[in-house]
Amino acid sequence: MRRAMLFKSNKWWLIPAFLLAVALPFFVGAYRLQIFIFVITYSLLALAFQLTMRVGLPRFDVAAWWGVGAYTSGMLMLKANMSFWLTLPISVLVSVVLGFAVFSVSVRRGMMVFMMFGMVFALALQQVFGSVKFFGGWGGTPQLPPVTIGSYVLNDKMWIYYLGMALLIFNLGVYQLLYKSRIGRAWSAIGSGLRLASSLGVNVVGYRLANVLVGNAFLALAGSFSVVYQAMIIPTTYGFQQSIYVMMYVVIGGLGFAMAGPIVGALVLTLISESMRAAQQYQPIVTGVITVLIIMFAPWGLLGVLRSRVVSVLQRLLSSRAALPDIPSSLGSPASVTAEEPGKDA
Amino acid sequence: MLLQVKDLWVHYGRAEALKGVSIDVPEGSIVTLLGANGAGKTTTLRTISGVKRATSGEIWFEGSRIDSLPPHEIVRRGIAQVPEGRQLFLSLTVKQNLLMGAFLLKKKSEFMHKVEEMTEHFPNLKERLGNRASDLSGGEQQMVAVARALMSNPRVLLMDEPSLGLSPIMVKEVAEIIKSVNSMGVTVVLVEQNARMALRLADTAYVLEVGRVVLSDRAGALAQDERVKAAYLGGRC
Amino acid sequence: MTLQLFLQILVNGLMIGAIYALVASGFTLILGVLQVFNFAQGQFYMLGAFATYAVASVLGAPYVVAILAALAAMALLGILVYFSIIKWTLRYGFFHTMLATVAFGTIVGQAAVLKFGYSTAVVAAVVDKTLALGGVSLNSGKLLVLAGALVVMGLLYWFMRTKIGVAMQACAENREVACLQGINAGKVFWVTMAVGCALCGVAGALVVPVLSASTNMGQLIFLKAIIVVLVGGTGSMAGALLAAFLVGIVESFAFQYVESFAPLVIFALVAILIYFRPGGLLGKPLPIPGQ
């Protein structure tokens, strides 16, 4: 896999990035740390979005499944007095089973129907969370019990941050394993062309459904994690607008970058919107303008710009053609962007 | 030379489709491009029509260079194409298909006049004008496809595999249509799998193999060529 | 249920169905011809409503003038969006154009909130009387919306049979072959954007005397348009029109009986349709990229 090799050859930056992330709580205060906890959560959502993009399926129900995780954990803790840690597998299970019920048909009907049906589901689900008395209504659930480890109450931002980091690293590890496995290769084949994939004998519907359900599992985990740092669960947090932001994170980071793209996008956009706290009402406009500009002038995201800079420098140094990140061609391949350049030597 | 292709290189992504194809099309002639699947015949036509961009090389038509013009401008200059597999607009009626072919005609009267001309030329179409294109048989669809391309009063007609998927009787009819179109003064560039029919019709022929012209001669001479006989004429018809 | 109630719910359903039909047909048109999933579609509806409010209530012009102004303004805005954003992102493919419209919709939505706040803007009802029909009284304002929408649909039907309208259908069916006929795809694209956005503008203009304008109406109607397109089949105009009335009526009745659970009823309807009629109500949808 070309991407895997790129990842390997560029692995050096992982070490300083990791050290920086570990050291972060010692440099910033509790308030700032909360922002980075948000960054982690949004990264988890964006990673799941990127996962389904791999099989050519954009999804707009990301926040809804995130909400499924949060509500499952929250409700079990509230109504059944269950320990937070016990709710984790249950919320994953709920998300996957419900996801199977919702998507097993729509995933057969192609990308358009899958995407739109997801939106309709998200709308209906939010209505359920908001309207059903059991879930506490539009105002949110009652105060959630604190998350504990043994007798220790997990309310220190630093430990919540580290828990989030652990979850993020767990996500990245599983994604990396999946992408490198046979399943991951099948997903890439589907992403780079449906007809080709099915002519190679790949069970498109099956692999797509598996992909979506893996995404659901991770989204539910992220939802459960959001219970840790929230006093209560409010249905509008898990609404359509959040799903739209997730999509923006992925594109701003870079569509061709399975791991780093979503994280960079979530980091950049969250920091931008945080730095605009004083002018909160202008924040969606700024975000929108940035997204439009990125799409028009850097269609492969910030990392795409970085990569092409690095590549062009490398090219000048080595005067050879360095490999560009491969992007599923169903999204419009980068080759088609540069198709008009001469490439007789290729 | 009415239409001239000079050293055309075309890529799909990194894959090379044409590697320096040159073709001369004299006014009033029928030129045929032969070759196996993937030899680059369709790519050549698509590039001439402007729906695919060349990497390098030149296309000249009536003394001006057209390889950077948009497709609709190339149609306006007088190059129309009958695409492979006919590709009518199946959801539209036959008349609406013809209207699309005549998109560049400004006046409605001109269009009506052209429709009359076409129904004279293809009498079968007369009572089919109101039908949906999807209701037509393969042969009828081919006629509509040719008529649609002729609506814009082209000087050159590019035909991509007009005999594809037609019965032997219909293939003969298509050959007749090509002849009569040519006798109207329209230059024809014919891409064909059916080499026997193409060589019978054409004045000159080019043989393409994996993106290169490997043979070119008068059609009559090529029909006698041993290599062509072995590769393209053997066993057919 | 009394006949009175039944007819009132029916008229209500027909009215919102007609509005859904206008927005959804604009959406399908743009989706089919440009292959752009226009997330900002609802915002054009919202802007159309506010434009009507501005012209009719603030400037005091007659309502008909306000409708025409909203139509023209949204058509122009659609063209502007095409030339400033969509044209430059089309070559990157489906996902990028979609995201560009998402971002544009976000900008417009927030700009509207900044300008108008979360309050609603009301245009004086054009007709206030109730229409008595054999002992049943109906809201004539709603009937007027329905009539206006039907007139617009008639105009759309006529337009789709003109040369440029047929060219739009041809482009939707097979863009490359349409180009081979000498159809200027760029021109067809901006005309489609103009028509698709004008349809939303008119829908907003028609609805504003009855439902009043608010800044979040755009996103709500967009989700409704999605439902309509799912029920009617992606890319099918006739399917969208039929589905819009179906969804409108079902929603209207569902709201009467289960109130806030109406979205669930709609969800169930969509789920059943997806299961049994993969191509939508009327069968085969048009080809859309990346299936």
Description of the molecule:
Helix content of chain A is 69%, strand content 1%. With 346 residues, chain A is mainly α. Chain A has one domain (20-336). Chain A starts with a helix and ends in a 9-residue tail after the last helix. Mean pLDDT of chain A is 82; it is low at 1-8 and 320-346. In chain B, helix 3 runs parallel beside helix 5 (138-150). Chain B has a single domain (3-233), classed as P-loop containing nucleotide triphosphate hydrolases (Rossmann fold). A six-stranded mixed β-sheet of chain B has the order 6-7-8-3-9-10, sandwiched between helices. In chain B, strands 2-1-4-5 form a four-stranded antiparallel β-sheet, covered by helices on one side. The mean pLDDT of chain B is 89. The chains are: A mainly alpha (346), B alpha/beta (237), C mainly alpha (291). Chains in contact: A-B, A-C, B-C. At the A-C interface, helix 6, helix 11 and helix 13 of A face helix 3, helix 4, helix 9 and helix 11 of C.
Radius of gyration of chain C: 19 Å
Global structural class of chain C: mainly alpha
Task: Tell me the helix content of chain C.
Answer: over 70%
What pair of chains forms the biggest interface? A-C, 47 and 47 residues
Profile the largest sheet of chain C.
Answer: 2 strands, antiparallel
Helicity of chain B, in percent? 25-40%
Features of this protein?
B: alpha/beta, six-stranded mixed β-sheet, four-stranded antiparallel β-sheet, 9 helices, 26% strand, C: 291 residues, 2 strands, disordered C terminus
